[in-house]
Amino acid sequence: MKKRGLIFIIPALVLSSCAVDMGIIEDKIGPYVTGKVSDTDGNPIEHIQVTLDWGKYTNETVVFTSSEGQFKSEAVISPEGQATLNIVLEDIDGEKNGGLFETVSETIVLYEDEGKNSGEQIIFELDFHLTHATASENTPQS
Amino acid sequence: MRKTIKKIILSLSAAAISTSCSLALVNNENEALEGDHKIVISGAVSELGTNNPLQGIKVTLQALPANVLYPLPILTLSEYTDNNGTYSISAGGFSDVITCKVTAASADPETMSYAPASQEHHISWSGPSFDEEKLTFFVNDCNFQLAKTDAQ
Lengths: 142, 152
Prior knowledge:
The complex is a heterodimer. Chain A is mainly beta. Chain A has one domain (26-130): Immunoglobulins (Immunoglobulin-like). Chain A has one helix spanning 2-17; strands at 32-39, 48-53, 61-64, 70-74, 82-91, 104-111, 116-118, 121-130. In chain A, the strands form two sheets. In chain A, strands 4-1-8-7 form a four-stranded mixed beta sheet, with no helix packed on it. Chain B is flat and about 75 Å long. Chain B has one helix and nine strands; from the N terminus they run H-E-E-E-E-E-E-E-E-E. Chain B has one helix at 2-24, and strands at residues 37-47, 57-65, 75-80, 86-94, 98-106, 117-123, 130-131, 136-139, 144-146. In chain B, strands 1, 4, 7, 8 and 9 form a five-stranded mixed beta sheet that branches.
């Protein structure tokens, strides 16, 4: 009886310790907007707060650049096949991660047919180069 | 005299062996990965107790060679959770079996302090989580619940 109990318990313990989903979940289809944020020397900047405002179609999205200086977010394209993106890049950690960088705010119009096709996904690639700022020019807001 | 010489030779040999062993453990993290296998790890980070999603948590992936007694990371990447408390890390260039250590921690302990947490996942490049067509291993729901601590 004890041996039979162990036969059932041990596999259960193994399965419960695995954090891996037992089914493949495909990547979302997108479209996506991806970006690379670097300084004027081309060095990636980590932990830049990126706020994406797609206007009336959805709420704001906040993401952060990775250790490679990259970010990715789902794009919100209107039924007409275009989107106006208000994007703000803000250095929120002061002198950390390469120094204090200026805040950048841009409005970008994206057209769906101009997106890059990557397999099943449409990707819009953005590239930003930030310059160092003085503390008085760019006080972190958050 | 002979005993002294023998002791010196043995000491030098031991030193040479230990040096060569330590060289084998030198961190090769900066070496370019040349494999064609990829991993995608995603999940959510929330506050323990309240389940509130945590934005701006730093999630670090360390890829370690498996079956090594004292492994050193061959790849380290960091992402941050978005305003929904979710993250996704993609990394490629692998070929051998690896272990992935995923750690969630406060990006700025001075303003937002949470106790860090880690998980390890054995990546075998097989099974239902492995997409053979894309050569990608998916680890979904790699979630963390972090306990709040006093800000440092």
